[in-house]
Design brief:
Length: about 375
């Protein structure tokens, strides 16, 4: 059997090669590398897909989050409530802008931020709540939006792992004040480098973000804000335009693979399969299981040629970079417990039946 990829991007390229090569060639021939027409075409597609009035593409998921905080004018002294169990970018951007990340622990089953814990962390300095749709499943957005409304704060959905997921019939990225996604190559919708997008239904926020991503410019060489270079390359937009056409099929395949994994692993002692609530879907950016004896299983799988990953081994409050916040072990016990047991196994729409069977066999026996 060929070597199993953790996320099989090579097979994906082979499948769409002609369309992708052609799309990239077109951009090169036109030499319109910055803000070419493919960017606008993509933004229209993204709005149509998510139902969000505005889609503003940008240079990465991290920059999408950063642009959102900048657009909301979040400053030093302000607090943003988020989960301690995510990729570092989520808390990093809050710190980077000089505000304070305030962590609220997660739900034991979905691994997403617990709304009950959020409300306990609200203070007069709270300016926003930043839930993450971890592994591709949206958080409890109704409850979170309700808390935000009660205390007049914004909600930025970190949907970097959940483009395409649904929550009560609506698309992730369009569930709150602002949604942010990532087009990092291994994401459910990935480009061939870094990329991201911000989504909002608010005209003013959209205009500000469009300006912030080009150095706060309102017209050429006239700058209203201190902004940044946060644009998406035209070539990346061209790749994404091709991939968008295949995206729904890919999501179906992801769901089928997750279902098969679930069926085969659900009764295995010592393993907890992913839990997705009835009123939403997951796009399974990762297929992550809880395993009592994680190190042993990782060793076994890696030994059998199966790649694995841990998302995430250290919760953010215990990261060296966050030491200045003064947290200690035991502050967020659910996140800490999950980080000790969670691990991800290969998942992609191009994982074959044979490969999946092999992974399952190695997990079970
Ligand atoms: C939850 C989450 N937030 C933010 C990011 C940052 O996205 P990017 O890598 O595109 O900057 C990622 C991507 O890894 C992510 O998974």
């Amino acid at each position: 059997m060929k070597k199993i990829d953790f996320i099989d991007l090579r097979s994906q390229y082979k499948a769409y090669r002609n369309e992708i090569d052609e799309a990239i060639k077109k951009v090169c021939e036109k030499a319109s590398f910055i803000m070419g027409e493919e960017v606008k075409i993509l933004e229209n597609k993204l709005s149509q897909y998510t139902g969000s009035k505005h889609s503003v593409t940008c240079s990465s998921g991290t920059d999408a989050l950063l642009l959102s905080l900048m657009a909301l004018d979040i400053k030093p002294g302000d607090e943003v409530i988020t989960t301690p169990f995510s990729f570092i970018a989520t808390a990093e951007v809050i710190s980077f802008i000089g505000a304070t990340p305030v962590f609220a622990d997660i739900d034991e089953k979905t691994y997403n931020i617990d709304p009950v814990e959020i409300e306990k962390k609200i203070t007069e300095n709270t300016k926003a709540i930043m839930p993450v749709a971890l592994y591709g499943q949206p958080a409890d957005m109704d409850e979170i939006n309700e808390i935000a409304q009660k205390y007049s704060v914004a909600v930025i959905e970190d949907a970097c792992q959940s483009f395409g997921a649904e929550y009560k019939g609506k698309k992730s990225c369009n569930l709150s004040t602002i949604g942010c996604t990532s087009f990092f190559p291994s994401k459910p919708l990935g480009c061939y480098g870094d990329g991201g997008a911000v989504f909002t239904n608010d005209d003013e926020i959209a205009e500000k973000i469009k300006s912030l991503r080009v150095h706060g410019q309102t017209k050429r060489y006239h700058h209203r804000y201190i902004g940044m270079n946060g644009r998406l390359d035209t070539i990346q937009a061209a790749v994404l335009n091709v991939k968008m056409e295949h995206f729904e099929d890919e999501l179906k395949k992801r769901a089928e693979i997750a279902l098969k994994y679930n069926e085969k692993l659900k009764n295995i002692r010592g393993i907890t399969i992913p839990f997705v609530k009835d009123d939403r879907t997951s796009v399974f950016a990762q297929y992550s299981i809880r395993v009592k004896n994680r190190d042993k299983l990782i060793e076994k799988l890696n030994g059998a040629g199966i790649p694995t990953a841990i998302h995430y081994p250290v919760p953010m409050h215990l990261q060296e970079a966050c030491r200045y916040l003064g947290h200690k072990e035991g502050d967020f016990p659910v996140s800490e417990a999950i980080s000790r047991e969670i691990m991800s196994i290969p998942m992609s729409p191009f994982l074959t039946e044979e490969e999946m069977e092999y992974v399952v066999e190695c997990v079970i026996f």
